[in-house]
């Protein structure tokens, strides 16, 4: 699908264009772009041509060249019919293998349109710069079909605006230069059947200087301490840096606002002139002097109105703001509780509603809305990044958003959030950690805390103080597309990994949150998202994600709620409810969406557990609640959700919430509680004192020290499932044949939520692939992705197979995914393992079904999704580190066994939960007698509270048991073996060894 095909946001569409006017005598002749006489074929890139596109298979319009006696120009016109449900239209792209066109000498583009009187907007897009028509910068305007019959519609280039809702390349220079044009596109109306006819697309008129010259200011908001001077810089810029050939004047004057002229500031007015011949970059200055009145006050605004002649004016007039001062909430020496109470007492209902509203950065086509609606938060969704995607650009972007908050009465800073779920994964060049499923395999809480600390440092250094992590779901069915976001299937394992909260936030009392290397953490998704029933989802084509969790009250407490109490005890600052529904046996309510479950959010989380942070909704989650929009707002707020993630609907939410409070359907007391919780975290983060990015730590982003932590995490996450004949570790003297789809693909080994929401294959970010790690280890390596290269002469094969990236319900089994290896991966395994001893590494977010191939595989490794440091995988393969990882989830024999989890009555997996062979350490000697002695010692450790000793005793017993079992894993063995690991994690060491003894007897 062409990337230009996305529906143009109505917020970017210009108003109705005026009818065509006769060309001035001085205008040059028009230049034809399309006459539709057959001179341009129906074709697509790289050739020049006209082609259609649409969101669904039936959305592209049907086009043809039609002979018409009423054709405005020539004999034929382009006609078409359409019936579009998503988006659709057509494009004329110029040939990619020829030079781009130069439209800079003209005023605009015009076309003949046969009006149907529909009153619908027709979006017209032009393509500027870049490599070709599908890798260009997009600029758009529109006209309205509110007439009948043929009419020539003129679209001045001055009316075109840069698309902020979608850009195929993320932006090139954000300047409509018109010197490298690659074509145009029309987007047709949605939701109605229609027909159209168009003719004579052409360039007309003489270029307007305002297309080549613009007046800008250094900032839209200029905060100043009372009594100080604000300096507003006014700059003239031109395309190509050419001097202006006509004078440009800027008349200015202070007027309006909340500050009082003569009392709060000295009014100014005048005219700035840039004479003909002025070079691009010339700057003039306007100074506004503010006055002291010696009283404590909120911030006051002084708009500076600019009237520009001869150039394009700034998108908005600048505003001088006299900072708030003297008010108690601004006093950093006061306790947070007092500061919150003071600020809350001063706020209007609209200001409170704004604080409860979170918008997406991509929705900020009008950044002034931050102040106009008093927004409390912005976020970057997956793949929502600045251009370029660098630490400096992140900090600059967020600082620009924070600057907007200075124009509000109380200058409450934004709290900006990102999904940094395995490192700062939206940022190119960041250190990408293994996904949680791999961290769960490490069984190393101290290391997991270090991964959280690295993530926090890299996130905060870009100006982001809030991370929507960690996910505390307990995954109970590996068909779930979010399985890899979980630390594992055992709530005890999840709880043990919650050291990551301290890595992110620091001390549990929140006293470290104002540090430049800590962020606010988010426990998600409350509660039961990992337990949804397969087939219960009603979201699109999802099969399990966002479905229904059917549980007894006891199961809910023991499995899904337990990790949240641990998170609250660790001081987690925010909690995010799940999209899923909860159906508790016997409560008589049936399935209820979590965002409406006040019994769980207000009752259990905030009440019984004592959570004192704030609850943030998931992306547009309230839209899934029953009733109209007002009911959505009422239900979620009343249930205890404090801030709504309403990415593009922030205006509707803020105004609806205020209306519901005024109507008495939502209590202002509930609103006050929500806002107090939000403000508390903002004060703890130190945002009132330091709202802007502290980038001193930016140099450490992606640094060797940070990557060393990720490399160790990748190494410890590797789970050795099989190792016949001690094939691993490899020796550098061996000739190694490497194959498979995931051997040399950093995108695949990083998985979803890497640079974009779904992630993608390929060299998407700096790092080391597994193949590169093997080569760096010093081995003799031959690589053939598809195993087509000759296999003779090699000592051992390493076949790296598994999944390609996905995220959330897109990755659900049954939604275009299954748990089997691809045909190409199967062929690579078969080819290599038939030719030599082989190691198979499975790079995936969940277990893969190997079926009858397992006997032919000498060594098998669950690599999970190791992130950017593939050298960590090589470390254990070549014996620089031992294999120590253990399965965080049960590895099934077949999909029919799912769901299968530790503690199940029927439990007969391929490999049990907790399984994991080791290398470099010989298995301890001994049998039943040794285990009996270990059990006695472990019981003594229980009584003494000697956790480290008890854990070591269990680990020794586990190695003895695994040694005896080999690959003969039966149901009688697997059950007690898996249960032993759960007992270990809950501190019952004696019982764990007893379970291992039972497994030993069954082996």
Automatic annotation (TrEMBL):
All residue ranges annotated as the Calx-beta domain in the record: 205-307
UniProt keyword annotations, A-Z? Calcium, Glycosidase, Hydrolase, Repeat, Signal
GO BP, sorted A to Z: cell communication; cellulose catabolic process
The catalytic activity of this protein is classed by the Enzyme Commission as 3.2.1.21
Which region is the signal sequence? 1-24
**Matching SMART domains, A to Z?**
Calx_beta
Pfam families cross-referenced by the UniProt entry: Calx-beta (PF03160), CBM_11 (PF03425), Glyco_hydro_3 (PF00933), Glyco_hydro_3_C (PF01915)
Cellular component annotations (GO), alphabetically ordered: membrane
Q: Which reaction does it catalyse?
A: Hydrolysis of terminal, non-reducing beta-D-glucosyl residues with release of beta-D-glucose
User: Which Gene Ontology MF annotations are present?
Assistant: beta-glucosidase activity; cellulase activity
Q: Which family does it belong to?
A: Belongs to the glycosyl hydrolase 3 family.
Q: What name does the UniProt record give this protein?
A: beta-glucosidase
């Amino acid at each position: 699908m062409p990337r230009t095909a996305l529906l143009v946001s109505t917020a970017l569409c210009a108003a109705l264009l005026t009818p065509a006017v006769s060309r001035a005598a001085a205008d040059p002749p028009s230049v034809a772009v399309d006459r539709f006489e057959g001179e341009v074929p129906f074709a697509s890139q790289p050739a020049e041509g006209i082609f259609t596109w649409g969101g669904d298979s039936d959305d592209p319009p049907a086009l043809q060249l039609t002979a018409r006696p009423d054709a405005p120009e020539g004999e034929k016109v382009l006609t078409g019919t359409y019936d579009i449900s998503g988006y659709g239209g057509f494009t004329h792209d110029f040939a990619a293998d020829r030079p781009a066109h130069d439209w800079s000498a003209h005023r605009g583009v015009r076309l003949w349109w046969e009006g149907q009187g529909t009153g619908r907007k027709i979006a017209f897009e032009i393509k500027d710069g870049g490599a070709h028509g599908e890798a260009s910068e997009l600029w758009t305007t529109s006209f309205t079909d509110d007439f009948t019959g043929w009419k020539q519609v003129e679209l001045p280039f001055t009316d075109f605006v840069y698309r902020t809702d979608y850009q195929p390349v993320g932006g090139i220079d954000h300047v409509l230069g018109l010197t490298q044009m690659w074509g145009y596109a029309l987007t047709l109306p949605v939701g109605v059947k229609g027909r159209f006819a168009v003719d004579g697309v052409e360039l007309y008129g003489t270029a307007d200087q305002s297309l080549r010259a613009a007046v800008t200011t250094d900032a839209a908001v200029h905060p100043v301490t009372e009594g100080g001077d604000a300096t507003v810089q006014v700059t003239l810029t031109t395309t190509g840096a050419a001097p202006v050939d006509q004078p440009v004047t800027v008349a200015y004057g202070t007027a309006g606002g909340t500050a009082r002229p003569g009392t709060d500031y000295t009014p100014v007015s005048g005219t700035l002139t840039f004479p003909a011949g002025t070079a691009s970059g010339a700057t003039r200055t306007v100074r506004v002097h503010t006055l002291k009145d010696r009283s404590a006050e909120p911030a006051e605004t002084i708009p500076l109105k600019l009237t520009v002649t001869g150039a394009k004016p700034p998108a908005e007039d600048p505003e001088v703001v006299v900072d708030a001062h003297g008010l108690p909430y601004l006093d950093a020496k006061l306790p947070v509780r007092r500061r919150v109470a003071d600020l809350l007492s001063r706020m209007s209902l609209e200001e409170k509603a704004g604080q409860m509203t979170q918008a997406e950065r991509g929705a900020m086509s009008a950044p002034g809305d931050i102040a106009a609606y008093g927004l409390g938060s912005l976020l970057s969704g997956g793949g929502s990044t600045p251009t370029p995607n660098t630490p400096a650009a992140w900090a600059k972007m967020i600082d620009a958003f924070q600057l907007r908050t200075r124009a509000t009465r109380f200058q409450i800073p934004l709290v900006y959030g990102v999904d940094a779920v395995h490192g700062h994964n939206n940022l190119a060049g960041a250190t990408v950690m293994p996904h949680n499923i791999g961290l769960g395999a490490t069984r190393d809480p101290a290391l997991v805390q270090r991964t959280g600390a690295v993530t926090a440092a890299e996130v905060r250094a870009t100006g982001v103080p809030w991370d929507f992590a960690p996910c505390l779901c307990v995954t109970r069915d590996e068909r779930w597309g979010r399985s890899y976001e979980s630390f594992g299937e055992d709530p005890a394992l999840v709880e043990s990994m919650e050291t990551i909260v301290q890595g992110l936030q620091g001390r549990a009392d929140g006293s470290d949150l104002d540090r430049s290397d800590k962020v606010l953490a988010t426990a998600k998704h409350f509660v039961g998202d990992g337990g949804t029933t397969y087939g219960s989802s009603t979201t699109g084509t999802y099969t399990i994600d966002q479905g229904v969790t059917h549980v007894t009250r006891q199961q809910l407490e023991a499995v899904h709620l337990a990790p949240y109490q641990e998170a609250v005890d660790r001081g987690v600052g925010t909690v995010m409810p799940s999209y899923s529904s909860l159906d508790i046996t016997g409560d008589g309510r049936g399935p209820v969406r979590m965002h409406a479950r006040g019994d769980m959010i207000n009752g259990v989380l905030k009440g019984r557990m004592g959570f004192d942070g704030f609850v943030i909704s998931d992306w547009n989650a309230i839209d899934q609640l029953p009733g109209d929009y007002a009911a959505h707002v009422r239900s979620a707020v009343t249930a205890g959700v404090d801030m709504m993630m309403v990415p593009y609907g922030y205006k509707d939410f803020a105004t609806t919430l205020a209306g519901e409070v005024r109507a008495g359907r939502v209590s202002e007391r509930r609103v006050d509680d929500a806002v107090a919780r939000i403000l508390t975290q903002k004060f703890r983060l130190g945002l009132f004192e330091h709202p802007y990015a502290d980038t001193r730590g930016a140099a450490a982003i992606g640094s060797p020290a940070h990557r060393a932590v990720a490399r160790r995490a990748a190494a410890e996450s590797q789970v050795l499932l099989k190792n016949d004949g001690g094939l691993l570790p490899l020796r550098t003297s061996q000739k190694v044949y490497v194959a498979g789809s995931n051997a040399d693909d950093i995108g695949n080994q990083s998985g979803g939520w890497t640079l974009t929401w779904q992630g993608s294959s390929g060299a998407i970010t700096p790092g080391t692939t597994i193949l590169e790690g093997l080569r760096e280890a010093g081995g003799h390596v031959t690589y053939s992705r598809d195993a087509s290269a000759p296999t003779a002469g090699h000592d051992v094969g390493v076949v790296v197979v598994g999944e390609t990236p996905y995220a959330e319900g897109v990755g659900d089994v049954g939604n275009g995914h299954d748990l089997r290896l691809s045909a190409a991966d199967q062929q690579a395994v078969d080819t290599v393992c038939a030719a030599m001893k082989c190691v198979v590494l499975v790079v995936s977010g969940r277990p893969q079904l190997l079926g009858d191939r397992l006997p032919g595989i000498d060594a098998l490794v669950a690599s999970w999704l190791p992130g950017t440091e593939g050298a960590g995988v090589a470390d254990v393969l070549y014996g620089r580190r031992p294999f120590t990882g253990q399965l965080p989830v049960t590895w099934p024999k077949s999909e029919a066994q799912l769901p299968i989890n530790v503690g199940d009555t029927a439990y007969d997996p391929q490999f049990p939960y907790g399984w994991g062979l080791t290398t470099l350490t010989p298995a301890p000697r001994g049998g039943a007698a040794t285990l009996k002695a270990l059990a006695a010692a472990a019981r003594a450790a229980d009584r003494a509270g000697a956790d480290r000793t008890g854990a070591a005793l269990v680990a020794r017993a586990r190695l003895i048991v695994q040694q005896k079992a080999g690959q003969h894993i039966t149901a009688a063995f697997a059950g007690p073996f898996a249960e032993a690991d759960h007992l270990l994690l809950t501190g019952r060491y004696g019982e764990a060894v007893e379970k291992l003894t039972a497994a030993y007897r069954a082996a």
